[in-house]
Amino acid sequence: MSNKRFWLLYTAIMVLALAIRLWGLGHVPTGLYWDEIAILADAKKIVATGTDLHELPIFKLIYPSYGDYKLAPYIWLATLSVQFFGPTAWALRLPSLLAGLATVALAGSLARLLSPTPARARIYQLTTMAVVALCPWSILFSRAGFEGHLGQMLLAASILCLLKYYQATPTKKHSFIHIFWLIASALLSGVSMWTYFSVRFVWPIVWTAVSLYFLSRDYRRWPTFLLNAAVSLGIFGLMMLAMLRDPLYAASNQLRLSTPSILNNNQLIHQVNYQRLLAGNTLPARILFTHKGAQAVWLARNLSQHVSGDFLFLHGDANLRHSTGFVGLFYLIWAPFLLIGLVSLYRHDWRLCLVLLAWWAVALVPASVPVTDVPHALRTLNALVPACLLIAWGIAIFLNRYILLKPSQIHLSTKQKILAFFLIAAQLFATGRFLWHYWHVYPALSAASWQTASTRHAEILAAQKDHFAQLHAVGIGQLTYLWYLVRPEFDPSSLARQPKDSYQFTQLDNIYFGNQPLPLRQEFFLLTTQDTWERLHHEHTFLQENILYDYVQDGEHYLGAAVILGN
Q1: In a 3-state reduction of DSSP, which class is residue 149?
Q2: What is the pTM for the complete model shown?
């Protein structure tokens, strides 16, 4: 393939990836989930005052946020975006969009470096880029402000630098470049770990697999391996130590470990004891039925759900923030190419095939440990690149065998043109079908998952703020204040004076959030649900009611009323 044709196709794929990810970025998904809105609130506050929501400096690794503890890199990038574009959904999601575009390019570069057949390296590179660019998994998370998407991109960048280090010749002339790739790989691994918690478990395994792969191909390069081990693990360890020394690390780690998982699930203990009892509580039964064994079985079952056909190719994650439910993480037409890629790559280079499978498998482990929310598309994002590399290899092999028979071939035969037409038509149909659903059906379908009601609540409170001495938001979620924080009416510099409880604000100006005491014999504005409204009628006597809002959103009946409350 000529350089001109290669770069033309390269540019076309990047432009297509940008267009799909940029179109309607601030409007689809329709709302901002509380993890996103919390990042936007911190970014707005930092731009306005130089400190976060809790008056803490920007240069720290863990932000307390609303008590959920956010890692810093995405907040830093969102702050930069908000500085230029303002506190909008578009600005919040821009870093994720850029991470998605970078993933397209990085995956292509990885494919070119890893290609078992150098003559077809460019075909493999372009195919991989196209797969990532059109992949529903990548598209969905490129359009949402989640740290995990940025983290997987940084992980892929670290592995790419590691490959360049191993493939570079450590001559005196190029020694600086050689060491540069090594240090860059180590630093990126640390930043990726700072960005998303699960990377700390994934990167060491992937680093080991890639390093052993190159060492197995040439055992004489063991000095290069030892230098890599000393520098990479040393830098990663120091950056990990910096996170461990953060004042909020213990609290953030405790929060995550408190999530129900196979590590702390008492149900497993009862299950093991019951199995032993049924077996007569004999010595063989006590040896056969163990807590560790039950954990391993549960883990294997969760892992299997992450590689099931339904999850990968049909419906994806049950959570509509992570999937549309209309297609899986990949298109169904890619399923045979994944199989072709696995078989063909194993035949070409079984070691490389095992490296990609190890990368994919270890990326699934953190998402398979929790008891609930399995399978989980967000927690397994670190598997995006290796999975796409395997699918793309299958497509590249198919192209090489049936369409691009010779690297120097310019004109295709009639048979090749027909086959290419049907392949392109099938892909266009699958992609067009997914995108049409995503832009026209998915927004309304997923509105509740994206908490669009909270945006409406903030709008109502902002509209009534100057008309009442007190406004109370009751029964609609304590975290409703996050959506009000990013409203243009709210001055972030006043946050230092606002009361809060455990990193959550209970009052912003004259608006009270949560179950705060209602005022007696004083006109106030109440925003609540139908059920809470009926409960309050039983607890209090309303001397006067004036319904200002009465609407249904996401299946819930919300009311806003100006009332005078009696004894």
Answers
A1: helix
A2: 0.92
**Phi (first) and psi of residue 551, to 5 degrees:** -145, 160
Planar angle of CA 24, 137, 131, nearest 5 degrees: 100
pLDDT band at 518 (very low <50, low <70, confident <90, very high): confident
Beta strands in 91-190 (DSSP E): none
Q: What string of H, E and C letters represents the secondary structure of 401-435? A: HHCCCCCCCCCCCHHHHHHHHHHHHHHHHHHHHHH
* Predicted local distance difference test score (pLDDT) of residue 298: 85
- Both tokens of 451, joined, read 């908490």
Average confidence score pLDDT of the chain: 89
Q: Compute the distance between CA of residue 432 and CA of residue 527 in angstroms, rounded to an integer.
A: 41
If one compares 465 and 520, the residue with the highest pLDDT of the two is 465
Instruction: Report the distance separating Cα 496 and Cα 493, nearest Å.
Output: 7
Residues present in the chain in total: 567
Phi, psi of 70 (to 5 degrees): -95, 145
The token pair that represents 46 in the structure block: 């930092």
Distance CA 560, CA 530 (A): 10
- CB of 236 closer than 8 Å to CB of 203: yes
Contact assessment for residue 368 and residue 306, using Cβ atoms and an 8 Å cutoff = yes
CA distance 323 to 315: 7
Which residues are registered as beta bridge partners of 261? 370
User: Which two tokens mark 503?
Assistant: 């990193």
pLDDT per position as a tens digit, 443-474: 999 998 999 989 999 999 999 999 999 999 99
Q: Which of 427, 311, 337 is nearest to 391 (CA)?
A: 337
Pairwise pLDDT comparison (4 vs 540), residue with the higher score: 4
**pLDDT at 260 (0 to 100):** 79
d(CA 232, CA 234): 5
Task: Band the pLDDT of 544: cuts 50, 70, 90.
Answer: confident
Q: What is the DSSP string of 254-312?
A: HHHHTS-BTTS-HHHHHHHHHHHHHTTS-HHHHHHS-HHHHHHHHHHHHHHHHT-HIII
What DSSP state is assigned to residue 313?
I
Q: Is the preceding peptide bond at 95 cis, omega within 30 degrees of 0?
A: no
Whether residue 550 has pLDDT greater than 90: no
Question: pLDDT band at 555, cuts 50/70/90?
Answer: low
Alpha carbon distance, N-terminus to C-terminus of the chain: 84
